[in-house]
Recover the amino acids of this structure.
Protein backbone atom coordinates (compact mmCIF):
# COMPACT_ATOMS: atom_id res chain seq x y z
CA UNK A 1 0.00 0.00 0.00
CA UNK A 2 2.76 2.45 0.94
CA UNK A 3 4.66 1.67 -2.25
CA UNK A 4 1.61 2.51 -4.36
CA UNK A 5 1.10 5.75 -2.46
CA UNK A 6 4.72 6.71 -3.01
CA UNK A 7 4.43 6.06 -6.74
CA UNK A 8 1.25 8.12 -6.85
CA UNK A 9 2.84 10.96 -4.90
CA UNK A 10 5.88 11.02 -7.20
CA UNK A 11 3.62 11.12 -10.26
CA UNK A 12 1.62 14.05 -8.87
CA UNK A 13 4.75 15.99 -8.00
CA UNK A 14 6.29 15.33 -11.40
CA UNK A 15 3.11 16.45 -13.18
CA UNK A 16 2.66 19.51 -10.92
CA UNK A 17 -0.68 18.19 -9.70
CA UNK A 18 -2.30 17.88 -6.29
CA UNK A 19 -4.87 15.46 -4.89
CA UNK A 20 -8.24 16.93 -3.91
CA UNK A 21 -8.94 15.09 -0.66
CA UNK A 22 -12.55 16.29 -0.40
CA UNK A 23 -13.49 14.78 -3.76
CA UNK A 24 -11.41 11.62 -3.52
CA UNK A 25 -12.72 8.25 -2.33
CA UNK A 26 -11.72 4.64 -2.78
CA UNK A 27 -13.54 1.33 -3.18
CA UNK A 28 -12.52 -2.30 -2.76
CA UNK A 29 -13.81 -5.09 -5.01
CA UNK A 30 -14.71 -8.66 -4.21
CA UNK A 31 -17.10 -11.38 -5.36
CA UNK A 32 -18.44 -11.88 -1.83
CA UNK A 33 -19.09 -9.60 1.12
CA UNK A 34 -17.24 -12.06 3.35
CA UNK A 35 -13.95 -11.50 1.53
CA UNK A 36 -14.08 -7.71 1.41
CA UNK A 37 -11.08 -6.07 3.10
CA UNK A 38 -11.85 -4.57 6.50
CA UNK A 39 -10.69 -1.12 5.50
CA UNK A 40 -12.76 2.02 6.02
CA UNK A 41 -10.24 4.76 5.26
CA UNK A 42 -6.76 5.30 3.84
CA UNK A 43 -4.23 7.75 5.19
CA UNK A 44 -2.90 10.22 2.63
CA UNK A 45 0.64 11.49 3.18
CA UNK A 46 1.83 14.98 2.40
CA UNK A 47 4.33 15.67 -0.35
CA UNK A 48 7.18 16.25 2.13
CA UNK A 49 6.37 13.13 4.20
CA UNK A 50 8.83 10.23 4.37
CA UNK A 51 5.95 7.69 4.76
CA UNK A 52 7.01 6.74 8.26
CA UNK A 53 4.49 4.65 10.28
CA UNK A 54 4.12 7.36 12.97
CA UNK A 55 4.11 10.42 10.71
CA UNK A 56 2.06 13.54 11.51
CA UNK A 57 -0.09 13.43 8.37
CA UNK A 58 -3.79 13.71 9.23
CA UNK A 59 -5.58 13.50 5.88
CA UNK A 60 -7.77 10.50 5.08
CA UNK A 61 -9.93 9.38 2.18
CA UNK A 62 -13.06 7.39 2.94
CA UNK A 63 -14.32 4.14 1.50
CA UNK A 64 -17.46 3.92 -0.65
CA UNK A 65 -19.52 0.86 -1.50
CA UNK A 66 -20.52 2.25 -4.88
CA UNK A 67 -19.77 5.18 -7.17
CA UNK A 68 -20.90 6.56 -10.49
CA UNK A 69 -18.31 6.68 -13.25
CA UNK A 70 -19.17 7.96 -16.73
CA UNK A 71 -22.87 7.34 -16.12
CA UNK A 72 -22.46 3.75 -14.87
CA UNK A 73 -22.93 2.89 -11.19
CA UNK A 74 -20.29 0.40 -10.05
CA UNK A 75 -20.72 -1.46 -6.76
CA UNK A 76 -18.08 -3.24 -4.72
CA UNK A 77 -19.51 -6.73 -5.40
CA UNK A 78 -19.97 -6.09 -9.14
CA UNK A 79 -23.61 -7.21 -9.03
CA UNK A 80 -24.75 -4.13 -11.02
CA UNK A 81 -27.99 -4.02 -9.00
CA UNK A 82 -27.68 -0.30 -8.34
CA UNK A 83 -27.08 0.52 -11.99
CA UNK A 84 -29.95 -1.68 -13.18
CA UNK A 85 -32.23 0.06 -10.68
CA UNK A 86 -30.97 3.42 -11.96
CA UNK A 87 -31.68 2.49 -15.60
CA UNK A 88 -35.07 1.00 -14.68
CA UNK A 89 -36.09 4.25 -12.98
CA UNK A 90 -35.18 6.23 -16.10
CA UNK A 91 -37.18 3.84 -18.30
CA UNK A 92 -40.23 3.96 -16.04
CA UNK A 93 -40.33 7.75 -16.27
CA UNK A 94 -40.98 7.37 -20.01
CA UNK A 95 -44.14 5.27 -19.59
CA UNK A 96 -46.46 8.26 -19.25
CA UNK A 97 -44.86 9.95 -22.26
CA UNK A 98 -45.49 6.92 -24.46
CA UNK A 99 -49.13 6.91 -23.39
CA UNK A 100 -49.41 10.41 -24.83
CA UNK A 101 -47.22 9.83 -27.90
CA UNK A 102 -49.15 6.78 -29.10
CA UNK A 103 -52.23 8.95 -29.58
CA UNK A 104 -50.53 11.29 -32.06
CA UNK A 105 -47.80 9.19 -33.71
CA UNK A 106 -47.94 6.13 -35.92
CA UNK A 107 -46.09 3.00 -34.83
CA UNK A 108 -43.14 3.55 -37.16
CA UNK A 109 -42.44 7.01 -35.73
CA UNK A 110 -43.14 5.75 -32.22
CA UNK A 111 -40.58 3.01 -32.75
CA UNK A 112 -37.98 5.62 -33.69
CA UNK A 113 -38.75 7.49 -30.47
CA UNK A 114 -38.36 4.24 -28.55
CA UNK A 115 -34.90 3.65 -30.04
CA UNK A 116 -33.87 7.21 -29.17
CA UNK A 117 -35.24 7.42 -25.62
CA UNK A 118 -35.39 3.86 -24.31
CA UNK A 119 -33.06 1.50 -26.14
CA UNK A 120 -30.24 4.03 -26.18
CA UNK A 121 -30.36 4.18 -22.37
CA UNK A 122 -30.27 0.39 -22.10
CA UNK A 123 -27.46 -0.01 -24.64
CA UNK A 124 -25.11 2.40 -22.85
CA UNK A 125 -22.42 0.17 -21.37
CA UNK A 126 -24.71 -2.85 -21.75
CA UNK A 127 -21.83 -5.07 -22.85
CA UNK A 128 -20.35 -4.55 -19.35
CA UNK A 129 -23.35 -4.89 -17.05
CA UNK A 130 -25.71 -6.91 -19.26
CA UNK A 131 -24.27 -10.22 -18.04
CA UNK A 132 -25.79 -9.89 -14.58
CA UNK A 133 -28.37 -12.37 -13.32
CA UNK A 134 -31.89 -12.61 -14.71
CA UNK A 135 -33.29 -11.80 -11.27
CA UNK A 136 -31.43 -8.48 -11.29
CA UNK A 137 -32.63 -7.65 -14.82
CA UNK A 138 -36.25 -8.65 -14.16
CA UNK A 139 -37.53 -5.17 -13.26
CA UNK A 140 -35.80 -3.62 -16.26
CA UNK A 141 -37.25 -6.23 -18.59
CA UNK A 142 -40.74 -5.64 -17.21
CA UNK A 143 -40.37 -1.88 -17.79
CA UNK A 144 -39.11 -2.43 -21.34
CA UNK A 145 -41.99 -4.73 -22.26
CA UNK A 146 -44.55 -2.45 -20.64
CA UNK A 147 -43.47 0.42 -22.91
CA UNK A 148 -43.65 -1.80 -26.00
CA UNK A 149 -47.13 -2.97 -25.01
CA UNK A 150 -48.19 0.65 -24.69
CA UNK A 151 -46.90 1.31 -28.19
CA UNK A 152 -48.91 -1.65 -29.52
CA UNK A 153 -52.07 -0.80 -27.52
CA UNK A 154 -51.83 -4.15 -25.74
CA UNK A 155 -52.89 -5.11 -22.24
CA UNK A 156 -50.33 -5.67 -19.50
CA UNK A 157 -50.96 -9.45 -19.48
CA UNK A 158 -50.32 -9.77 -23.20
CA UNK A 159 -47.86 -12.51 -24.16
CA UNK A 160 -44.24 -11.48 -23.70
CA UNK A 161 -43.11 -13.56 -26.67
CA UNK A 162 -45.71 -12.07 -29.02
CA UNK A 163 -45.02 -8.47 -28.01
CA UNK A 164 -41.44 -8.67 -29.30
CA UNK A 165 -42.47 -10.64 -32.35
CA UNK A 166 -45.14 -8.08 -33.27
CA UNK A 167 -42.94 -5.04 -32.68
CA UNK A 168 -39.70 -6.42 -34.20
CA UNK A 169 -37.82 -5.05 -31.18
CA UNK A 170 -35.02 -6.91 -29.41
CA UNK A 171 -35.46 -8.02 -25.81
CA UNK A 172 -32.70 -7.68 -23.23
CA UNK A 173 -31.05 -11.02 -24.00
CA UNK A 174 -31.04 -10.26 -27.72
CA UNK A 175 -29.72 -6.76 -27.10
CA UNK A 176 -26.87 -8.17 -25.03
CA UNK A 177 -26.18 -10.75 -27.72
CA UNK A 178 -26.00 -7.98 -30.31
CA UNK A 179 -23.73 -5.87 -28.09
CA UNK A 180 -21.36 -8.79 -27.59
CA UNK A 181 -21.08 -9.56 -31.29
CA UNK A 182 -20.52 -5.93 -32.28
CA UNK A 183 -17.96 -5.51 -29.51
CA UNK A 184 -15.94 -8.52 -30.70
CA UNK A 185 -16.18 -7.32 -34.31
CA UNK A 186 -14.98 -3.84 -33.43
CA UNK A 187 -12.00 -4.71 -31.24
CA UNK A 188 -9.62 -7.13 -32.92
CA UNK A 189 -7.52 -7.69 -29.80
CA UNK A 190 -10.38 -9.81 -28.44
CA UNK A 191 -10.23 -12.08 -31.50
CA UNK A 192 -7.48 -14.67 -31.58
CA UNK A 193 -8.16 -16.76 -34.66
CA UNK A 194 -7.21 -20.39 -34.80
CA UNK A 195 -4.06 -20.63 -36.90
CA UNK A 196 -2.58 -23.99 -37.72
CA UNK A 197 -1.75 -26.08 -40.75
CA UNK A 198 -4.72 -28.42 -40.45
CA UNK A 199 -7.73 -27.97 -42.73
CA UNK A 200 -10.44 -28.05 -40.05
CA UNK A 201 -13.92 -26.55 -39.95
CA UNK A 202 -12.91 -24.12 -37.21
CA UNK A 203 -9.96 -22.76 -39.19
CA UNK A 204 -11.87 -22.56 -42.47
CA UNK A 205 -14.78 -20.57 -41.05
CA UNK A 206 -12.99 -17.86 -39.04
CA UNK A 207 -13.49 -19.48 -35.66
CA UNK A 208 -12.07 -17.56 -32.72
CA UNK A 209 -10.04 -19.27 -30.04
CA UNK A 210 -12.03 -19.74 -26.84
CA UNK A 211 -10.76 -18.75 -23.42
CA UNK A 212 -10.68 -21.12 -20.43
CA UNK A 213 -11.31 -19.08 -17.26
CA UNK A 214 -10.20 -20.54 -13.96
CA UNK A 215 -12.92 -18.82 -11.92
CA UNK A 216 -16.64 -19.39 -12.40
CA UNK A 217 -17.37 -15.67 -12.15
CA UNK A 218 -15.20 -15.03 -15.22
CA UNK A 219 -17.24 -17.34 -17.45
CA UNK A 220 -19.78 -14.58 -18.11
CA UNK A 221 -17.13 -11.95 -18.90
CA UNK A 222 -17.12 -10.53 -22.40
CA UNK A 223 -13.58 -11.85 -22.92
CA UNK A 224 -14.86 -15.43 -22.43
CA UNK A 225 -18.44 -15.39 -23.65
CA UNK A 226 -17.87 -12.99 -26.56
CA UNK A 227 -15.80 -15.39 -28.73
CA UNK A 228 -18.31 -18.19 -28.07
CA UNK A 229 -21.20 -16.11 -29.36
CA UNK A 230 -19.11 -14.78 -32.25
CA UNK A 231 -18.37 -18.31 -33.45
CA UNK A 232 -22.11 -18.99 -33.82
CA UNK A 233 -22.64 -15.98 -36.12
CA UNK A 234 -23.11 -16.87 -39.82
CA UNK A 235 -20.13 -16.18 -42.04
CA UNK A 236 -22.23 -13.89 -44.23
CA UNK A 237 -22.48 -11.45 -41.30
CA UNK A 238 -18.84 -11.84 -40.25
CA UNK A 239 -17.69 -10.69 -43.69
CA UNK A 240 -19.56 -7.37 -43.43
CA UNK A 241 -17.91 -4.16 -42.37
CA UNK A 242 -18.53 -2.92 -38.86
CA UNK A 243 -20.30 0.19 -40.14
CA UNK A 244 -22.85 -1.84 -42.12
CA UNK A 245 -23.29 -4.89 -39.90
CA UNK A 246 -25.78 -3.35 -37.46
CA UNK A 247 -28.95 -3.80 -39.54
CA UNK A 248 -28.03 -7.24 -40.82
CA UNK A 249 -27.17 -8.40 -37.32
CA UNK A 250 -30.50 -7.14 -35.96
CA UNK A 251 -32.37 -8.83 -38.80
CA UNK A 252 -30.58 -12.12 -38.14
CA UNK A 253 -31.34 -12.01 -34.41
CA UNK A 254 -35.03 -11.26 -35.03
CA UNK A 255 -35.63 -13.69 -37.89
CA UNK A 256 -33.58 -16.66 -36.67
CA UNK A 257 -35.97 -19.17 -35.06
CA UNK A 258 -33.14 -20.68 -33.02
CA UNK A 259 -31.69 -17.50 -31.53
CA UNK A 260 -33.42 -18.38 -28.25
CA UNK A 261 -31.27 -21.51 -27.99
CA UNK A 262 -28.12 -19.45 -28.44
CA UNK A 263 -29.30 -17.08 -25.69
CA UNK A 264 -30.10 -20.01 -23.43
CA UNK A 265 -26.76 -21.66 -24.19
CA UNK A 266 -24.56 -18.70 -23.29
CA UNK A 267 -26.66 -16.07 -21.52
CA UNK A 268 -29.21 -18.07 -19.51
CA UNK A 269 -28.20 -18.74 -15.92
CA UNK A 270 -28.37 -22.28 -14.46
CA UNK A 271 -31.52 -21.40 -12.52
CA UNK A 272 -33.37 -20.69 -15.76
CA UNK A 273 -32.32 -24.00 -17.29
CA UNK A 274 -33.28 -25.73 -14.07
CA UNK A 275 -36.76 -24.17 -14.28
CA UNK A 276 -37.18 -25.52 -17.80
CA UNK A 277 -36.09 -28.94 -16.60
CA UNK A 278 -38.66 -28.88 -13.83
CA UNK A 279 -41.33 -27.82 -16.31
CA UNK A 280 -40.53 -30.82 -18.54
CA UNK A 281 -39.76 -33.24 -15.73
CA UNK A 282 -36.13 -33.76 -16.79
CA UNK A 283 -32.75 -32.86 -15.35
CA UNK A 284 -30.97 -29.59 -16.08
CA UNK A 285 -28.13 -31.51 -17.75
CA UNK A 286 -30.61 -32.94 -20.27
CA UNK A 287 -31.82 -29.45 -21.16
CA UNK A 288 -28.23 -28.22 -21.54
CA UNK A 289 -27.21 -31.13 -23.80
CA UNK A 290 -30.26 -30.72 -26.03
CA UNK A 291 -29.65 -27.00 -26.41
CA UNK A 292 -26.01 -27.65 -27.32
CA UNK A 293 -27.01 -30.19 -29.98
CA UNK A 294 -29.56 -27.83 -31.51
CA UNK A 295 -27.16 -24.87 -31.61
CA UNK A 296 -24.31 -26.93 -33.07
CA UNK A 297 -26.57 -28.32 -35.76
CA UNK A 298 -28.04 -24.94 -36.70
CA UNK A 299 -24.64 -23.21 -36.74
CA UNK A 300 -23.22 -25.97 -38.90
CA UNK A 301 -26.06 -25.67 -41.41
CA UNK A 302 -25.98 -21.85 -41.50
CA UNK A 303 -22.23 -21.91 -42.21
CA UNK A 304 -22.66 -24.61 -44.86
CA UNK A 305 -20.72 -27.23 -42.99
CA UNK A 306 -21.54 -30.90 -42.94
CA UNK A 307 -25.17 -31.17 -41.88
CA UNK A 308 -25.32 -33.22 -38.74
CA UNK A 309 -28.24 -35.66 -38.61
CA UNK A 310 -30.94 -34.70 -36.12
CA UNK A 311 -33.21 -37.48 -34.93
CA UNK A 312 -36.93 -37.12 -34.34
CA UNK A 313 -36.32 -37.56 -30.62
CA UNK A 314 -33.90 -34.61 -30.55
CA UNK A 315 -36.32 -32.45 -32.52
CA UNK A 316 -39.11 -33.32 -30.08
CA UNK A 317 -36.88 -32.39 -27.13
CA UNK A 318 -36.01 -29.07 -28.77
CA UNK A 319 -39.68 -28.32 -29.44
CA UNK A 320 -40.62 -29.07 -25.83
CA UNK A 321 -37.82 -26.85 -24.54
CA UNK A 322 -38.93 -24.03 -26.85
CA UNK A 323 -42.51 -24.25 -25.57
CA UNK A 324 -41.33 -24.37 -21.98
CA UNK A 325 -39.07 -21.34 -22.53
CA UNK A 326 -42.04 -19.33 -23.81
CA UNK A 327 -44.24 -20.42 -20.91
CA UNK A 328 -41.66 -19.62 -18.23
CA UNK A 329 -40.84 -16.31 -19.93
CA UNK A 330 -44.49 -15.26 -19.75
CA UNK A 331 -44.72 -16.23 -16.08
CA UNK A 332 -41.54 -14.39 -15.06
CA UNK A 333 -41.59 -11.25 -17.16
CA UNK A 334 -45.13 -10.24 -18.11
CA UNK A 335 -46.05 -9.03 -14.62
Amino acid sequence: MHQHQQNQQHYLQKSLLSLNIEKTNFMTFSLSSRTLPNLNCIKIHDSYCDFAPQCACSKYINKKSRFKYLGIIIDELLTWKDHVEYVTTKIRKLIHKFYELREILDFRTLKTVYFALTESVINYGFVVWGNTSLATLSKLQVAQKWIIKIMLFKQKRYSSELVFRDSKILNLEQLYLKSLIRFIMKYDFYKEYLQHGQNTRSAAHAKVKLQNPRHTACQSHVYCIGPKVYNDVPNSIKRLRYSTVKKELTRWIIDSPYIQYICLRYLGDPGYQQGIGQELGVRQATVSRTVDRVVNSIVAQSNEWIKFPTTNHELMEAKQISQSMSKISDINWCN
Summary: Residues 298-312, 327-335 have pLDDT under 50 and may be disordered. The chain has three domains: 2-64, 72-169, 173-333. Strands lie at 25-26, 41-44, 59-63, 66-69, 72-75.
